[in-house]
Amino acid sequence: MSGPIVWTEAVVQATREVTPSVREFTLATASLCLPYAAGSHLQVELLINGRPQTRSYSLIGQPDDGLYRIAVKQLPLGRGGSLAMWRLAPGDLLRISAPRNFFPLSLAAPSYLLMAGGIGITPLVLMAQTLAKRGAPVRLVQGARTLSELAYGDVLRAVLGERLTQVVDERGERVDFAGEIAALPAGGQLYVCGPAPMLDAARQAWASAGRSVHDLRFETFGSSGHLAPQPFGLKVPRQGIDINVAANESLLDALELAGVSALSNCRRGECGLCALDVLALDGVIDHRDVFLSAHEHQQNQRICVCVSRVVGSITLDSAYRQEA
């Protein structure tokens, strides 16, 4: 689903701790929730740094009771979205979008491999449920830093049984990307959601195996990068702007707050609509999008301002617009 966001009011009906750092929110609207397919998410409007901002959260499981469920990992060093969500309590009101899907599940593949890291498990829960219900050949590899952070492990084990593999860093385990991909029958599809290093490893292993790029689907989250977020300098000569972007502020938010009109849609680093030309760079770009290619990341000539960050300072041309 794309196009302008249509907002509706929702109430937080309940919350529960899924892991020590992941909280699930059950949201109710005036009518039953709209139907949605695996991979869908909600846009949520939150008050962050004194102004309304939107964040995306994957929808979890089938809406059998007419309610939406999302889960949010607490990120003290993030851009403020998780902290705003964790301040919510049952009875609080907020605005949400209709379900949107930039990570759709194809039902035409002969087999499936699902891989998740940390909070990246959330969109894969419904994928696993959907595929298992259809009797499709599916395996899921779930990774986490600690055993206690294996979110929804009980739900997934009930659905998948021995087809679920859990990999835990504190046990000295590491995901065998090459081995997992080699075990996927020819023509099978891989769906990955996790932090940037996991996506990089999966894409590299997929390419090394000679698999079709069209059979690899992935999603990331804007807070995931290779470098810790920190303040950086931003110049936009066309508007005479010379400001600092805060550690908990996205580049897109900083541009908009400074009066620069920047096109955007997904705010997840996936659609590329917000990409701007880089005029000068004094430092390093932490590319957190999945739209630009690895070669484009290396060139540092464009940046997706909704999620990517900088260590140092950057000069941008706000006049860039992607050609149709």
Characterize the structure shown:
This protein has 324 residues and is an alpha/beta fold. It has 3 domains: 7-97, Translation factors (Elongation Factor Tu (Ef-tu), domain 3); 112-219, Nucleotide-binding domain of ferredoxin-NADP reductase (FNR) module (Rossmann fold, 3-Layer(aba) Sandwich); 232-317, Ubiquitin-like (UB roll) (Roll). Helix content is 18%, strand content 34%. The protein is built from 7 helices and 16 strands. It has helices at residues 81-86, 122-134, 153-160, 177-182, 196-208, 251-257, 294-299, and strands spanning 7-19, 22-29, 41-48, 51-58, 68-73, 93-97, 112-117, 138-144, 164-168, 189-193, 216-219, 232-236, 241-245, 275-286, 302-304, 309-317. A 6-stranded antiparallel sheet has the order 4-3-6-1-2-5. Helix 2 packs parallel to helix 3 (153-160). The model is unreliable at 320-324 (pLDDT under 50).
